[in-house]
Amino acid sequence: MAISAKLLGEDEYVVVSTRTHWKALIFPVFVLLVVAGAGGFLAAIVPTGSMQTPARIAILAVGVVVLVTFAAKPFLNWFFSTYTLTNRRLITRHGILTRTGRDIPLMRINDVSYEHGLMDRILRCGTLHIESAGERGQVILPDVPHVEHVHLQMSDLLFGGPEGKPGDGILDDEQPPTHMRRRAEPEPDTETLFSSDDK
């Protein structure tokens, strides 16, 4: 599921890699069960005679078409769609035969937020909204598993962790943008901590 290490830059590492939530598979699994049950029932009640074999072949063909359209295709879309967050960029990949992808450098992300309704909270997923400085503007990632954790990880990368340091999205030799800078904490006065009388 994680992106290949060959596609990562120097000193780049994966922070989070995931597919969309498994709830995307509920409908395909439901279709699979219904088609299998209905197809088996219809095939069993076909009357004997010269038309029995053609009728069963027709039932099988219809069942295969329905399964490919409403079960196999959604499953493959889910399987081949990934969201990857590294310490440098956000990577999205989609598509079965024709692959599409988008890479957003963390330096271009201005804001990240999430939302999840009642059902999403029960299933522990949600939608991630990302505001970037690129031409497309907003990026929406639906059905992200553990969306709160992903949001926290991305916020730490963008705006720094609890130590007040710049996030990993800032390279060591780069100056962070104004909106990502943190005020440096004043260093303690060593003269007040250790007086000459203590020697």
TrEMBL record:
<keyword id="KW-0472">Membrane</keyword>
<dbReference type="Pfam" id="PF03703">
    <property type="entry name" value="bPH_2"/>
</dbReference>
<dbReference type="InterPro" id="IPR005182">
    <property type="entry name" value="YdbS-like_PH"/>
</dbReference>
<protein>
    <submittedName>
        <fullName>PH (Pleckstrin Homology) domain-containing protein</fullName>
    </submittedName>
</protein>
<feature type="transmembrane region" description="Helical">
    <location>
        <begin position="25"/>
        <end position="45"/>
    </location>
</feature>
<feature type="transmembrane region" description="Helical">
    <location>
        <begin position="57"/>
        <end position="80"/>
    </location>
</feature>
<keyword id="KW-0812">Transmembrane</keyword>
<feature type="region of interest" description="Disordered">
    <location>
        <begin position="162"/>
        <end position="199"/>
    </location>
</feature>
<feature type="domain" description="YdbS-like PH">
    <location>
        <begin position="78"/>
        <end position="150"/>
    </location>
</feature>
<keyword id="KW-1133">Transmembrane helix</keyword>
